[in-house]
Amino acid sequence: MPRFLIDLEKKLDHFAIEGSNQGFRLFVSSDPSKSIPIGLCERCIKLTNEPPQGLKQNMKRAFTFFSKEEIEDRDVKIKTILFALCYFHSVMLERRKFGPKGWNMKYPFNVGDLRDSAIVLNNYLERNTSSGKIPWDDLKFLFGEIMYGGHIVDDWDRILCKAYLDNLMNDSLLEEAELFPFIEGRPISFKCPPPYSYEKYIEHIETECPQETPLAFGMHPNAEIDFRTQQCIELFRLLQ
């Protein structure tokens, strides 16, 4: 990659000297990297796509990854499971901010895992519609052992992932089940909605998903102390 970027910078210098078509534009995308030449950055208009912060914003990003047609053209069962899958994806991402309290290791969960899980969900259920029964165990294995579980190498993290899926992927999900785990008796709730339109799903996320709290992940309220402390330290560092 560094060699290619050096060659790219030389080609741009060559085009600048010889001239190029007025309509010529070059778009370059990259993951975060320290090897991008400074000269290449200085001559570019730079746009960044920052990951969303918080469970609600991750839910909105995950759900709006799918088009309106992809949601509304599906069977009601698929729509409901897909909504729960977006919540599961958001939880997997957001637990990383809690450090070792969230996951014992840092895992590269990404939107590709959500996309592939949705494709498998659609294909699997469309081929098994005749029985009318949802193969929950099969779905949990595909999501928890192959798609997301393919990143997980720690045994306890794998158990945690399985616990989330056991809580989500069952028949109660089709009856507006509670998505937040282990919140009995606590003043917090976020339920899976009935089959809605695309806009109604987004509105449900916006209005019903509560403010940030470790309780939403089934964690102790004190779990975020280290995370908030690190946020303050970083803020003071930037203000120096």
Automatic annotation (TrEMBL):
GO biological process: microtubule-based movement
InterPro entries hit by this protein: AAA_lid_11, AAA_lid_11_sf, DHC, P-loop_NTPase
MF terms in GO: dynein intermediate chain binding; dynein light intermediate chain binding
Pfam families: AAA_lid_11
Entry's transmembrane regions: none
Gene Ontology, cellular component aspect: axonemal dynein complex
Every Dynein heavy chain AAA lid domain range: 79-223
Protein name, UniProt field: Dynein heavy chain AAA lid domain-containing protein
Organism lineage string: Eukaryota, Sar, Alveolata, Ciliophora, Intramacronucleata
